[in-house]
Amino acid sequence: MGANDNFMQMTSDGMGSGGRLTAFNLNQWLGSYIAQGVTTVEIDLRNQGNVPLSIRLAFKTENVQVTPGYLSAPMLLPVGSGWLHFSISITAANLIAVGGPAPYNTFFSGGFADFRIIHEVGTANLNGDFVIGQLGIDNIRAVPEPTALAFFAFGALGIIFLRFRRAASR
Question: Could you give the CA distance from residue 147 to residue 57 in angstroms, rounded to a whole number?
């Protein structure tokens, strides 16, 4: 959010264990997306390397090499892109099933164990492609945010209660 703003920077060297441009989270980004009303992930990305990047969100059943899951549409980052803002739909119609995962409603109701941000040109890999690259990541957020959804629901209940009360007093 301006000068000296902290952001996550990822680097990959294109070979071996450090060859994939992949970040994963095994804790904070897990849970029942459906119950929380999460349909979109917003993220700011910047290509800081010398090759174009195809960044996707990957949701895996387990944190192992070969496991089923879902893959998002790509966020294409040309070389020298500067910061670009993306809104990625994670609804059933907009995700690609990889390896025969559980049905969408089961999977996103708490059935996944690994959330990843990866460079993946194709649609068959939840681990990412090998690439020599550098990526900046900032401002990741779930939409609607679970707390915003709770405030909305509470507000809607309040309006219903007030209308019911007015109707009862007439």
Answer: 22
For the entire predicted model, the pTM comes to: 0.80
101 is in which domain, residue-wise?
A: 8-145
Residue 32 has what pLDDT? 87
How many domains is the chain built from?
Answer: 1
- Residues 88-101: tens digit of each pLDDT: 999 999 999 999 99
Note whether 79 and 133 are within 8 A (CB). Answer: no
**Beta bridge mates, 7:** none
Q: Are the beta carbons of 20 and 84 closer than 8 angstroms?
A: no
In a domain? residue 14: yes
Separation CA 18–CA 2 (nearest Å): 30
- Residue type at position 132: I
Helix, strand, coil: what percent of the chain each, to 5? Answer: 20, 35, 40
What is the pLDDT confidence band of residue 148, given thresholds at 50, 70 and 90? very low
pLDDT in tens, 70-82: 999 999 999 998 9
- 3-state secondary structure (DSSP) of residue 60: strand
Give the CATH number of the domain where residue 47 resides: 2.60.120.430
In-domain check, residue 157:
no
